[in-house]
Specification:
- The complex is a heterodimer of chains A (114) and B (107).
- Chain A contains no helices and 11 strands.
- Chain A is mainly beta.
- The radius of gyration of chain A is 13 Å and the shape is globular.
- Chain A starts with a strand and ends with a strand.
- In chain A, 36% of the residues are buried.
- In chain B, the strands form 2 sheets. In chain B, strands 2, 4, 5, 9, 10 and 11 form a 6-stranded mixed β-sheet that branches. In chain B, strands 1-3-8-7-6 form a 5-stranded antiparallel β-sheet, with no helix packed on it.
- In chain B, strand 7 and strand 8 form a beta hairpin.
- Classes of the chains: A mainly beta (114), B mainly beta (107).
- Chains A and B meet through strand 4, strand 5, strand 9 and strand 10 of A and strand 4, strand 5, strand 9 and strand 10 of B.
């Protein structure tokens, strides 16, 4: 079984540019989550999809961030325009519906804004 | 939200030494996991351990849910063990992560 796949693994962009991160969850996992770790701080929740619907987006920092999950499969997280403080590692995770275990995290996308 | 505290924040070990990392959490949880973030930023799941004890090679973990703490043991440390170790607890629909223990194993 393939794991959670994220790409790119690393992205370097200039301040003001746009970047789109992609996450492919484990096949059949209805739940998809985005997290990020910035500036050496703790990893924090951004949002949660159930299939194609946003279940909880309370962790999204501001309206420069837009997440989508068309068709309930892969998800994208767009940052537009990127700011220096957006630098960090963005993680995606997926899990089966109504499960307290079976969470699998991707290996992350390291975003560097210069 | 739930509070997750990890100790120590930083740890330097000589290769071959043993260590214990601690995670305290402030409320009942559905799930607890230990992760290792390697120097390339990858987040590797080590243990799913809401309670009890598990072992995997040189690593083992124990969670005492009633006392709201978990321990990660690393024995005979190797340089490849370096990185940040995170404890994360699940409550509701999201994980709450601790601030991590940064481990450096020197040859």
């Amino acid at each position: 079984e393939a794991g959670v796949t994220q790409f790119p693994s690393h992205s370097v962009i200039e301040k003001g540019q746009t970047v789109t991160l992609r996450c492919d969850p484990i096949s059949g996992h209805d739940n998809l989550y985005w997290y990020r770790r910035v500036m050496g701080k703790e990893i924090k929740f951004l949002l949660h999809f159930v299939k194609e619907s946003k279940q909880d987006e309370s962790g999204m920092p501001n309206n420069r961030f837009l997440a989508e999950r068309t068709g309930g499969t892969y998800s994208t997280l767009k940052v537009q325009p990127a700011e220096l403080e957006d630098s960090g590692v963005y993680f995606c995770a997926s899990s089966p519906w109504l499960s307290n275990y079976g969470y699998t995290f991707g290996s992350g996308t390291r975003l560097t804004v210069v | 939200g739930i509070q997750v505290e990890q100790s120590p924040p930083d740890l330097i070990l000589q290769e071959g030494a043993n260590s214990t990392l601690r995670c305290n959490f402030s409320d009942s949880v559905n799930n607890l996991q230990w992760f290792h973030q390697n120097p390339w930023g990858q987040l590797i799941n080590l243990f799913y351990i809401p309670s009890g004890t598990k072992q995997n090679g040189r690593l083992s973990a124990t969670t005492v849910a009633t006392e709201r703490y978990s321990l990660l043991y690393i024995s005979s440390s190797q340089t490849t063990d370096s990185g940040v170790y995170f404890c994360a607890v699940l409550t509701g629909n999201q994980f709450y992560f601790g601030t991590g223990t940064s481990l450096t194993v020197i040859p």
